[in-house]
């Protein structure tokens, strides 16, 4: 059980969330590897000796020239020839058990909570879509840009206000994932995003 601070206009507030106490780096590795594999376009392609634009005529007779024997100009041994065992378009994605994916997300959130790098926001007061408004809010709440921050909120105006900052990335609550959590130093969730995240990982929480 972790106690998370909540940024609230009404004063000090906390929320209790049930997250894993032990964090297994290998589970996080497996989930990140699965995510990045899914993102690969898999469009790399090379031509074999049968696909390069060269004649298939034999260069010169097999014997009695004093030179090495060769076939056509498109052989891999020649510059511009075909590629042996080169990449072809393929799908790099693979399946990962849902239980492992849920556990990975729970551990990633728990890791930020354990490091005291997870903040919950009741409401982004004064932020109405302008970057300067989010900057003012962030400065007032101890976020000065010295650490990268992942902002997860259902409020489109807040996402619009934060997306241009070099130290902040924004996501909708449905898009919360292990890779983006781990590549940012801080995790900032609004209450709706926290509720959805806890539902996804099957954990409970209470204010």
Topology readout:
Layout (H helix, E strand, L loop, with lengths): L1 E6 L5 E5 L7 H15 L58 H17 L3 E4 L9 H10 L8 E4 L3 H7 L5 E4 L6 H5 L3 E5 H11 L3 E2 L1
Parallel strand pairs: 1-3, 3-6, 4-5, 4-6
Antiparallel strand pairs: 1-2, 2-7
Helicity level, as a percent range? 25-40%
Structural class: alpha/beta
**Poorly predicted segments:** none
Specify the CATH architecture of the domain at 2-24 and 95-206: 3-Layer(aba) Sandwich
GO biological process, one term: translation
GO cellular component, one term: ribonucleoprotein complex
Pfam family, one: Ribosomal_L4
Subunit structure: Part of the 50S ribosomal subunit.
Question: Could you characterize what this model shows?
Answer:
The protein is elongated and about 95 Å long. The mean pLDDT is 93. It starts with a strand and ends with a strand. The chain has six helices and seven strands. Strands 5-4-6-3-1-2-7 form a seven-stranded mixed beta sheet, sandwiched between helices. It has 207 residues and is of the alpha/beta class. It has a domain at 2-24 and 95-206: Ribosomal Protein L4, Chain: A, CATH 3.40.1370.10.
Entry keywords:
ribosomal protein, 14% strand, Ribosomal_uL4-like, 207 residues, Ribosomal Protein L4, Chain: A, alpha/beta
How would you briefly describe this protein structure?
This protein has 207 residues and is of the alpha/beta class. Helix content is 31%, strand content 14%.
